[in-house]
Amino acid sequence: MRFNVERIRTDFPILNREVNGKSLVYLDNAATSQTPNQVIDVIVDYYRRLNANIHRGVHTLSQEATDAYEEARIKIQKHFNIAKSHEVILTSGTTHSINLVASGFSSYLSKDDEILVSAMEHHSNIVPWQMLCERTGAVLKVIPMNQNGELVMEDFHKLISERTKLVFCNHVSNALGTINPIEEIIKASHKVGAAVLVDGAQAAPHIKADLQALDVDFYTISAHKVCGPTGVGMLYGKEFWLKKLPPYQGGGEMIAEVTFDKTTYADLPHKFEAGTPNICGGIAFGAALDYMNSLGFDDIAVYEHELLEYATSELLKIEGLKIYGTAKNKTSVISFNIEHIHPYDIGTILDKLGIAVRTGHHCAQPIMDFYKIPGTVRASFSFYNTMEEVDVLVEGVKRAKNMLL
Amino acid sequence: MSIESIQNDIIDEFSMFDDWMQRYEYMIDLGKALPLIDNQYKTDDNIIKGCQSKVWVHAELEDDKLVFTADSDAIITKGIIAILIRAFSNQKPQDIIDANTNFIDQIGLKEHLSPTRANGLVSMIKQLKLYAVAYQTQLN
Asked: Cβ distance A239 to A268 under 8 Å?
């Protein structure tokens, strides 16, 4: 067997538990991924053996914790093929990363500058830019999408101009699973001198992005989407931009010298890492990437694609079921509804059957408005899910449909 | 009938069910049978916040009793409101204010009582009681 899912599942203790008397079928991986023993052990070991504040202590524990934390930064750097380790800023997650950049750009935008944002963004990649526009008078323009949930690239090329200063797009849509053509977006944006931030939160569990090859200006991810803990993530920024942007938060760690007259800021990456960071989380983030790499992203992608194809064809056999997001290029996410049934009702019945899915607008209300629906049921598959679990989902949806119609 | 005896009736009915399936099927039936709210009251003002599905509740005083009508775009949510309305509608505002809601727990819907749960049962109960407080003030 090329991809031994049964063996991989033994790494994840939570997959053995029961919910409502049934074996858990966890299909909410786009919200958060589960944690393997290899990462749990690192977290436990940190508090048992290593816990100390970093970067400032002269004592051995502090040195060891600092080494482990900085080693994690190097792991993240290598994973994303980032040129310099100080271009990796450790944050509390994607939302923090995006807000850091949005805040930094306040001083570089003026009235009538334009910001382009895709129609399929998560609220965390819409609201900070709206706030930025309010502060600066810049104008937010939206790259539209079509019925399949793909960006309309002809419109993008018409929208982008010399006035465009920033472009934001997710690598993969959380609500639809669409993989966006970010290479094309980055190239066209750079031609007019605009910087590009790609939100990689939903791509990271499926795609190993080469950030130097992409030539992207900013890339953000959250560790908990890639089998790591919550509360930690990455902002990648090109050195040029990170040097140019002002610090986001003031505090300890981010300073070089402080007097009451003037403070000089620390060098990168510390300039953007005020206060005591999530040390354990950062170290576990590194361990999580190690774990994913030990499985291999190519094999993960092939297997998840098989899950997606099988689940899509089985679900579509259910009469009245409609899938939202049918892009040619998509990750293992299926957003769907059944005619005349509210997604919340389906989610409630599935939960009773031990099946965890997400229901609602998935923090992407503009997408729901586009399709004129209140929300969807979203089943998102990970490499540790099985074909049998797809069958359980399909049976569950059929049962819910019978009860609810 | 007093709120308490209606609640006891509901507890009796639910005690006949062996498993969650039957309980939910019953709730779904109740939801389908719920008298709909008059369309003119399905306004944004009458939407209860905190629900993943939309819930509208309207209250009207008939003589000295408060009558609730409601609707939701999700059927299980509608079933839950149907149960609440059965317990609290057509009662005196003060009795609604004083009523306790332990019966929800006893009919096996405790999971819906969590304030963080997206269906907003807690918000619904709060809204019904708020209406009662408002009308009680009017009566005074």
From this structure: yes
Tell me whether residue B35 is one of the annotated catalytic residues.
no
In CATH terms, is domain A52-293 a member of 3.40.309.10? no
Asked if the C-beta of A337 comes within 8 angstroms of chain B's C-beta atoms, the answer is no
B95: closest CA of chain A, how far (Å): 32
Tell me how crowded residue A258 is: count the other CB atoms within 10 A of its CB.
12
Strand intervals (E) in A271-398 = 321-324, 333-338, 355-356, 358-360, 376-380
Cα of A301 to nearest chain B Cα, Å: 33
Question: Which option is the CATH number for A5-29+296-404: 3.10.690.10, 2.60.120.280, 3.90.1150.10, 3.30.830.10?
Answer: 3.90.1150.10
Is residue B50 very low, low, confident or very high in pLDDT (cuts 50, 70, 90)?
low
Contact B32, B76 (CB under 8 A): no
Residues of each domain in chain A carrying CATH 3.40.640.10: 52-293
Given this model, what pLDDT does residue B101 score? 84
ipTM of the complex model = 0.86
CA distances, B50 to each of A78, A122, A382, B123, B134 (Å) = 43, 20, 30, 7, 21
- Tokens 């944050």 -> residue: A91
Q: What is the predicted pLDDT for the residue at B113?
A: 57
How high is the pLDDT of residue B119?
56
Residue type, B94: Q
Query: Which segments of chain A belong to CATH 3.90.1150.10?
Result: 5-29+296-404
Instruction: Give residue-wise pLDDT tens across range A324-348.
Output: 999 999 999 999 999 999 999 999 9
Q: Does A128 reach chain B within 8 Å, measured CB to CB? A: no
